[in-house]
Amino acid sequence: MRPSVAPAVSVRLAASLFCLCAAPALAGDAAAIDPIGFSEDGRYFAYEEYGIQDGSGFPYSTVYLIDLVADKWVGLPVRERIDDESARLNTVREAALARAKPMLDKAALALPAELVALNADGETGNDGLELTYGSYGNGLTPPQDLQTLTLTTFASTSTQPCASYGMEEPVKGFALTLASETGDAVEIHRDAAVPASRGCVSDYRIHAVMAPFHWRYDAMPAVAVISVYTVGFEGPDRRFVTVPILP
After folding, report:
1. Same-domain status, 150 and 30
2. For 134-153, what is the mean pLDDT?
3. Domain check: are 36 and 95 in the same one?
4. What is the rounded CA–CA span in Å between residue 240 and residue 144?
């Protein structure tokens, strides 16, 4: 049995958070995402989203555990926020991960997450509505068995009173299509309505594809990570949702 990857998150904090804690505030609240890992069979995936809340300047962290086969949360997300704008981001992250530890341990997250493809925030020339990726050997050869994710949005409904929050347009839902090199395509997700947990959504983008280490060889699910933009205090706020890509 491989050791759990969940404890490794705290080891990464010291290396990854100093610059984020000292960074100047930007308009809107763009959460970052950190994958925690997958279960041995690839069924469960956990990730953390974290950032600095716009308006208040309070640091927050939320840990999600996803059942990829059922396409739903396992339990409720673990949410932490420190209502002090002088608090450091790594403090709230450590608190969230500590609270989530029993849930993560039960899921036995033994496989690290592999970043397969990314529409990076600093990348130019990409509208975030498409992402092509494939399997690879050691990174020196071109990806094989290419697949393309395409995202479309449409007017939808929500139980949230978004008009009272100043949102003039209808909330948006999204659909995600996966196409192979041969042109065969299948819709892997379509919103029937916007869940209240997403808030008042104005737009979406494809952020990344993540998968268990060596997922191509073991026929395990991958995960499409979708950026969700909602009405915020100082501009659009970004959070994340996931869509399973089953083998």
Report:
1. no
2. 89
3. yes
4. 28
